[in-house]
Amino acid sequence: xxxxxxxxxxxxxxxxxxxxxxxxxxxxxxxxxxxxxxxxxxxxxxxxxxxxxxxxxxxxxxxxxxxxxxxxxxxxxxxxxxxxxxxxxxxxxxxxxxxxxxxxxxxxxxxxxxxxxxxxxxxxxxxxxxxxxxxxxxxxxxxxxxxxxxxxxxxxxxxxxxxxxxxxxxxxxxxxxxxxxxxxxxxxxxxxxxxxxxxxxxxxxxxxxxxxxxxxxxxxxxxxxxxxxxxxxxxxxxxxxxxxxxxxxxxxxxxxxxxxxxxxxxxxxxxxxxxxxxxxxxxxxxxxxxxxxxxxxxxxxxxxxxxxxxxxxxxxxxxxxxxxxxxxxxxxxxxxxxxxxxxxxxxxxxxxxxxxxxxxxxxxxxxxxxxxxxxxxxxxxxxxxxxxxxxxxxxxxxxxxxxxxxxxxxxxxxxxxxxxxxxxxxxx
Length: 428
What we know:
Layout: H1 8-16, H2 19-30, H3 32-37, H4 44-71, H5 80-98, H6 106-134, H7 138-170, H8 174-199, H9 213-223, H10 225-246, H11 248-255, H12 262-287, H13 289-308, H14 315-327, H15 330-344, H16 356-384, H17 396-427
Helix pairs in contact: 1-7, 1-8, 2-7, 2-8, 4-6, 4-16, 5-6, 5-8, 6-15, 6-16, 7-8, 7-12, 7-15, 9-10, 10-15, 10-16, 10-17, 11-17, 12-13, 12-14, 13-14, 13-15, 13-17, 15-16
């Protein structure tokens, strides 16, 4: 029997609508902190503290907003009203963050970061949760999430290369680059939200709205291994990928000898990942989610080993190894979401609506914690080995430890994910 496919125009709208979300998220880590650190009313320490508190706030809002979304659908559906509500929050806070007045201070940065993270999380959770409501077919969900995350990587590339090209072509300084991102968001965010609302159907349900979202969610998390598995996979692979990106410049500069081109080489990782998405999506359609996920993890573990043994100053080999590693980027992104969508189906019981938003809020929270933990873990280890980012050279032992943390550290967490997946497949 042939699966009923999600219409192509719906796949395109669902995927491309993530581009401005990616263009919003990454600059918050790359451009905004140094931009505000230059303000005469702020110091580097103050900016760091504000962003640390904002991220802590962001962790707690995930579950709260997941509960709110599941608890209060509208008469017209479960998604569109929340997506529309997120738009003015995002537009006002984004504009004020990316195009601030010259005297912006600690209160100004704090309040607009506070609102930005609320709007961002509100839109992101609904975007994740919309896909399993468009189709009940696992392979179709993988198709939706696959193309969505391919567009996400494209958005990441756009948000990195756009300001760099602006600087190269017109000599734009940091302020002008940040302002240009704000203008892009003012145009792209309304387009994305309008496309979602006008093109994608919103599921109306006669099922009873759950009264005890947290209690039911915790019950299913304890009772169903299928509900825990995507969280474990997303958390472990999230740590692995974040270790690589967080110390890439250090490893490329000191352990592999490519300091002047490190920021360009990391783009190879994202480009390779973007180009490989169609292959992984096709394989998933043919062989299934668990099988392809296990293949991807085995492949990425092999790529980590290749990275470890690349000789220093071998530019071509290093670029090739980074590209090979990037090919495995996609499956941990979209297949964990596909598995969570299937697990959420288990939470619909006794005529009650499934906990879709709550389930995906758990994933967004675990992924954020994984990213923060990866930075803390990798930078803590760098401190223990005596690494100095301001030094011109490092000792041979520090170079070796840099390689171990950069390539074998992620391998450890990919191995944990593979073991968890193997146990699930064996149980089945």
